[in-house]
Amino acid sequence: MIFFLLLQLLLGMAAGVFNLSLVVVTAHNAIAALLLLSVVNLDHLLTPQKAK
Amino acid sequence: MAPVPHQKQIATWLLIVAAMIFVMVVLGGTTRLTRSGLSIVEWRLFEGTLPPLTEAHWQELFELYKKTPEYRKINAGMDLAGFEKIFWLEYLHRLWGRLIFFAALAPLPWFLWRRRIEKRLVPRAVAVPLLVALNGVLGWFMVASGLIDIPRVSPYRLTAHLGLAVAIYAYILWMALNLISERAPVNTPPGLRRFAHAVTGLVFLMILSGGFVAGTKAGFAFNTFPWMNGRFFPEGMYAMQPFWINLFENIATVQFNHRLLAYLLCLVIPLFWWQVMRAETAD
């Protein structure tokens, strides 16, 4: 999660500096989805299962 | 307790759909960045599955594109070869959407018929292909907004399309994790659980804010960091009236808010991580 956050920040800054280069912005989109995946996973782990 | 075999099957199905949505989010961003999204001006659910196979069909689609504001105002003079280039990405985006719908729908009747899905989970599982279909409709609704007079799609519709895709992705992941993952001890502090929900919500909000950055093309406006044209608070941040419209349509405010949410996540995620680690150590 921390790794994805840092990578996402770097890509966000690079996207601006490199005038929205296709590769950088595409990676920025992908890492956003991976960051959400890692957060959802941790959120899920911390949420107890409801009784069936 | 280890998941029972049919739970694993259902989770695999859901994770495949989630992975396909992940690819779709990336592909959607690329489609937009290459200005390909407005190249197909019709929404033919079944006939559109096949690409043009004859020169005459290519020409017919190109003639339709020539009537759009994007061609008239931005791509005037583009030849058929140029049109083919932007056509393929949008075609792939739509084809992949159809495949996601197929992957979300196809195994469902079998799972239902074999009673593989717990009764209480049936409505949630049925919702998966319905939500995917809804986002397909929303995608066309978005494209349609860019075919009228201004050669760009509505940032609201674009963000709704992206937001729904990401929400479906998170929803499917959650369902799959419910089936295969070991849950946390029940004694997780309620405060930490609320914090986890808040962080998830904040990341989702950040993605929506990115949708508005893309939709308003705010990313092209300020190419320095951390300053925005030499200032922390860019000029003209609240120049539009009424006030709320700045949050969605003023490129200075839209990009500033995206950065602000990033700063907030930089504080909140490490703090959340530290809290989780502390709770684990306390156990």
Short summary of the structure?
With 52 residues, chain A is mainly α.
Which terms summarize this structure?
heterodimer, A: 52 residues, mainly alpha, 2 helices, 0% strand, elongated, B: 283 residues, 10 helices, 68% helix
Can you describe what's shown?
The complex is a heterodimer of chains A (52) and B (283). Chain A is an all-alpha fold and 52 residues long. Chain A has one domain. Helices cover 79% and strands 0% of the residues of chain A. Chain A is built from 2 helices and no strands. The longest helix of chain A has 25 residues, at 22-46. The radius of gyration of chain A is 15 Å and the shape is elongated. Chain B has 283 residues and is mostly helical. Chain B folds into 2 domains: 1-181, no CATH class; 184-283, no CATH class. In chain B, 68% of the residues lie in helices and 0% in strands. Chain B has 10 helices and no strands. Chain B has helices at residues 5-33, 55-66, 69-73, 80-105, 107-113, 122-145, 155-180, 190-216, 246-249, 251-282. Chain B is flat and about 70 Å long. At the A-B interface, helix 1 and helix 2 of A face helix 1, helix 7, helix 8 and helix 10 of B.
